[in-house]
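Researcher: Structure prediction, please.
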Amino acid sequence: MVDDVRSGRPAGPVPRGRRPLCAEALLEQMPDGLAVIDADGRFVQANPAALSLCGLDAAYVAGAASPFPPRHADEDGEDPGAETVTVWETEPGPRREFAYRMSRLPGRDERIVAFRDVTESRRHQRRLAAIASAASRVAAKRSLGSTLEALAKEVLEADALAGVQILTVNATRERFQVMGTAGFSQADNFFDMLLECRESGADLRMIDAFTSRQPVVVPNRYATIMSDPAWRALKDYMRSPVWDWFASVPLMVRGEPVGILNAFFAPDQEIGRTALDFLLAMAEQAAQAVDYAALLEREREVARREERHRLARDLHDSVVQQVFSMGMQAESLSMLSGRDTVVDSAYVMRVAGELGHVSKAVLSDLRAMVTDLHPMPLADQGLSAALDALAESTMGRTGLDVRVAIADRQHELDDLEAELREDVYRMIAEALHNSVKHAQGSLVTISLGVTGRRSQRWLKGEIADDGCGLPAQNADLPGEEGGFGMTAMKERAGRWAGHLSILSSRDEGTTVRFVLPLPPSLPTGLHRDVFVPAKDPAENTGENTGENAAEDVSQDAADVPADDPADDPVHDAAHENR
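Model: Predicted structure follows.
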């Protein structure tokens, strides 16, 4: 008899066909896994749910390894109420996370385990934690590189992916650069290999995601790449870790793409709606980091510009006016000395001459300082315009012939970081100042450009005069009268992992050369012609390909590969102007 719980009265006989289930039938119908394991953590027996969760065959379950740890000799027993999480990975097979409770069977060196699949719920928790962590990293105002590197690792760990890449673009959105990676090894020539694949006909789906501003999901991408000859250059790099599906999500800021997030999913992982939503959320955090970095850079540029305005105004209103007054006093002394008075006219004339000479020199230097502190074209029109303005100002003040040659075929100079452009301008301005002050020549040539192939590019500059030359022992001395001099120029170059050298000999002029490595980048595809391989200029122009090889700017740079002078626009520009 079975009691009727609701009424408290004995129930009637069990209806025909509704016999109570036996224990074995109950075990078979349980939705959770239930298993017996031995002291070594191996299965003794398991119910159908356990077999399904672990991907095992009932005929081979006895003695098979289980997801659960072996029993240690110093363990007195487990708390059956304590739930623990373990990870189960089979090859091949999906990665799963099981929450389990374990208790010892009385009188036997075996334990019974009840477990359930918590993979999705745990993944959801990690995704939420990753989004929160990403938001806090962005709010913490860390550097963009470290923030995106951390975001890539958050995405990788949250969904147990094979690999993650986060790429951002330059100011014109024409070139990519890697800012964060996880899972894959580092490869300095990654963009070289990627461009080679593109030129061989490989389909870069991340370009599609960037240009379309929509996520791109590609099933079985790994097998496609490994079987496509166009991907030959990158096969070794992308072979490990093994992955399968691929997703590329654009980083969007106010409706415009500023980068992409590439996710490489492990085998047996598929990209569902929740996985894609997570990638979109993390891409949004990455985009906010990029936007914040750009905003911070703009604020810094505004602050620098305002500081230049203030310094220029203060110099003009105070120092320049005072020096001008000194000049007027000198003129008055000169006039006084011409009168028939008891004043020693020779002495007054000498002092007046010296005062006038010094005041004019100081006034000239201060005007040059105002121009140097206030290079408005650098902020408003770019580096090329700033150098042109510097040359015109110098020629107007000194009468020296100053020529500027810019070789920037891809218009990359104005895409450089603001601080890098500032340092380049300062190095050139200081070198020009030294030529004006010490060279006693008639011509100064300024050459600047970007050279190199694919992602391995350098910014090269040369400032050459036809003056008296600089004695070797003075090459590293600071400039006179408080100038920054050669030491500061070398420090500016070293700040960007570059190299600056000075070539000079008496009566043959002085040449200052610098080489600065540029960060690797990749064309975004917004301008399709950027994928056309650049031809060697010597093929079309007939320029000299070997005669001036010894004069290539890069020859003075330690650890910088020497380019063919025919492919060096700075080299060509410098020698066309001599």
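Model: The first strand starts at residue 33 and ends at 38.
Researcher: Thanks, that helps.
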